[in-house]
């Protein structure tokens, strides 16, 4: 098995296991791409079946059909899991990896349901059934276009965390004040501080269900102030993520050049001298 | 008909058909512009009539008037369609083009209604009547200012597709969890996973109708997390489209020049040398 | 009255009329600034009185007090209007200007109410009373900080118009489809196309009152598509206005230099040659 | 006590009071950091207790437990407050500072409740109890990551104030019009101008509770116009704050250099000559 290094060009003599590994885990050959597309459709189909099972009108009339499809998808995913376990070299590492566990959880529930048909296990069965919904995470195997989105969110992660903490602090104080103002009355939704905070989040994010709404004059004034505050604050994450995406999409990237004298990073592409200490920067050819 | 090439200056000797073609299909003469404006008003009027026909209080008292206007607009649009068919050279290509079909669908329903006055065709009639609403698409003939909007959305199309897919994945998982938490209770709106996903979309887009809202404590906590997540995620499309529009509106466009030496794309307009390899770039006059 | 030119420095010998004109119409002396501040507070107070008059619980118990304040404000504004008419030179031009009409409408309603105490004029009285609310526009006399906001909105005016037209077209088509799907049913809010379009606007702007909401499966799917579309489209005005404000706030303005050869406008500050035709641009000193 | 200057390196001989001051008020040693972390958790715990006390189902069954925790936190915060008062040099200045008052208010309510157990002081007790909620502000002692957020909001403060004033003016006029149109009818929520303005704020911020919604045709048209306006206006704070954050995050800062000849401000970092008058700019080293 000395020919196992991936960049090897002549694949004619590859053993079956090796070729399957290429098809299942990589996406560089036409066979591997076809496998990816087929699997994506299978996942989408299996998710649709789980969804429809929860719709009463559909479930009553097409129970057998859904059951059949469910078993079809389960068997296909079982074959896929078995193949993955067979062809992968570090079996244990795969089995304990995130996608390994997701792949296992995609097939286990259907088998477990056979043993749990007693009436006492209804909730367990429902949880198991819905666990199959997480097959959607299997799609992560086959998606690489979402990288820019992930990197933009990652870059602004710590700033969004601070922002969310600030929002929670505002919501806590506002929720407490609203509970104080509206709390004592009958027929109001502000029955406790956590409930008032839930209302605060519904309001500051501009969702506004309307299941809880202020009824007193002072409560309405406070709510108005909070909405207008939220209106200004909503601009903060937009600014953060927007700036990151703008940098991501912009064709002019900042220089990666570092000043040899003062270690300053991030120079303008047309700068010849460090803007922080004035010493000569390395030429543009050096940063390629 | 050798004078049919459009840039011909002397239009005095043009035959009627040629002159009509100019007026109907182009917008470069005062006659053609007047035709465009009249047609835009006719379309707006005909749409208004279709709308008012659906309002019961108006329809009962002004049925004859609306009927009259409807036939007036239909006859005018029929004349327009006939003229277009007469003057256009590639008749078949126009008839099967997008706007050709829209133009035909704008007149057909009114005529078809004559044959469908029986009581059994009520739904067909209603669909036909509303089909005339799509005359709004005829306006596309006469709009060119919306180009910047279309190009900004087109440029960010693939990124928005990835973003919408990510939102759907989040909504699927959240909807499943909410169905699990809230689903078993009486009087709750979370009756199935698709229903929960509908609630998830209503929530994450901050629309928040309030027809479905969580009632349990865990459900409310999960919904709060989802709203705050949506609050951060709403910044993503804003960042994407905003960055594209900013580029579109910005007077400083990035160069489309490519370095002949290292193939680096995206130079500053004031750069004379490639910032990646230092070789001379083609002059700005070459990229005009 | 040859000393009436404003930049005259010695104001000691100015007649009263001249000095009042300075105080009332300009804001460059301490007296004029004090006048502005007092007037702003009077306007705010008079608006508060109009508002409180509509609140039943307040109006019943404090009718006389509100009446008194109303007459106080009306007399003060009458004095202000008389002074303005006296000191201004082009009396007719002021009387017919926007702020001249607003100033007159701020005092007329209270006087007219004396003659309209008959029971038959109730609606006219209410309209007149509320007309005084527009005194808020008088504040426009005294606000100059909002210029950046106005200029940012003005610069993006035509683009926002195109955007709003596109939104209306989408809402028309969506509203028609929703009326088709949900319209026939009992208990649904989609009773006509205009009503469905109202729902469409409530939905696409993410306001989401919940007074009208889809109840059928297809209606919910269509509404979901519309919400997600709106989620992407909401980024468009943000991008447009955001880009304008960014340019407004940015310390680096684009050059106002115009190429003498090809009339190209909007060069990079560091460009020496026209990027469109290559001819030499005027030096930076020329554009000061 | 001549060794009290903070940058002194040898802390071995420091008296206890000095060392405690370091731990409590600074964050530069491992002991001080541990103190910060412990205090953050104590604050979070005490807030949770105050919240849970307002939830009836929890309070009824775990009253004693919550009472116990409440006293535990109060005693710990009392010790903290005493230590702070002991180690700080300018005792009076700390006691009257913002955080000094917050620290005192965090412990007082629990003690005051002992004397206010009579049935006549129920509201006072509730207010006192909830006052402890503001312990969340104590977290401000220990947070420094939120600086970028504060500075971005501060930089756009005056612009946001102008924006909020403009929104209030729009809401006043819209609210008055809606009261005029919808006010006379039965069963409508527009009972007064302030109420209509509350609805206006709920609508323009796209919160949309739905507790008040227009019912007349003209009211719905006006509300639609308002929503679409708000849709365009929501972009304004996003643009303002977004631009500030973008500048904050951007590696390329605009120059603060001012031309000595013509006072022009805001040069490109790579400019060596003033773009307005052509005279030599101070070198980049001068602006460091």
Automatic annotation (TrEMBL), chains A, B, C, D:
Main subcellular location: membrane
Q: Name one GO molecular function term.
A: voltage-gated potassium channel activity
Residues forming the Ion transport domain are: 33-245
This protein's membrane topology, according to the annotation, is: Multi-pass membrane protein
Transmembrane annotation, as ranges: 34-51, 71-87, 118-134, 160-181, 221-246
Q: Which InterPro entries match?
A: Ion_trans_dom, VG_K_chnl, Volt_channel_dom_sf
Q: Where is the signal peptide?
A: none
Q: Which GO terms describe its biological process?
A: action potential
Where located? Answer: Membrane
Task: Name one cellular component (GO) term.
Answer: voltage-gated potassium channel complex
The answer to whether the entry has keyword tRNA processing is no
Record keyword Transport present: yes
According to UniProt, the name of this protein is Ion transporter
Originating organism: Luteolibacter pohnpeiensis
């Amino acid at each position: 098995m000395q020919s196992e290094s991936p960049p090897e060009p002549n694949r004619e003599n590859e053993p079956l296991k090796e070729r399957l590994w290429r098809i299942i885990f990589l996406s560089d050959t036409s066979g591997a791409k076809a496998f990816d597309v087929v699997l994506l459709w299978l996942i989408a189909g299996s998710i649709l079946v789980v969804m429809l099972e929860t719709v009463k009108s559909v479930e009553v009339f097409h129970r057998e059909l859904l059951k059949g499809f469910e078993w079809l998808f389960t068997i296909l995913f079982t074959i896929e899991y078995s193949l993955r376990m067979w062809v992968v070299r570090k079996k244990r590492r795969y089995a304990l990896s995130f996608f390994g566990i997701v792949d296992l959880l995609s097939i286990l529930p259907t088998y477990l349901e056979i043993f749990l048909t007693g009436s006492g296990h209804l909730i367990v069965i429902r949880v198991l059934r819905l666990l199959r919904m997480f097959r959607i995470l299997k799609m992560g195997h086959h998606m690489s276009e979402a990288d820019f989105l992930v990197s933009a969110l990652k870059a602004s992660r710590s700033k969004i965390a601070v922002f969310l903490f600030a929002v929670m602090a505002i919501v806590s104080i506002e929720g407490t004040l609203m509970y104080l103002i509206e709390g004592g009355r009958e027929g109001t939704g502000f029955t406790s501080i956590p409930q008032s905070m839930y209302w605060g989040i519904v309001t500051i994010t501009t969702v506004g269900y309307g299941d809880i709404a202020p009824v007193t004059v002072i409560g309405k004034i406070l709510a108005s102030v909070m909405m207008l505050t939220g209106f200004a604050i909503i601009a903060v994450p937009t600014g953060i993520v927007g700036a990151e995406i703008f940098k991501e999409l912009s064709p002019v990237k900042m220089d990666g050049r570092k000043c040899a004298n003062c270690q300053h990073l991030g120079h303008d592409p047309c700068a010849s001298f460090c803007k922080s200490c004035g010493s000569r920067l390395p030429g543009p050819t050096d940063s390629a």
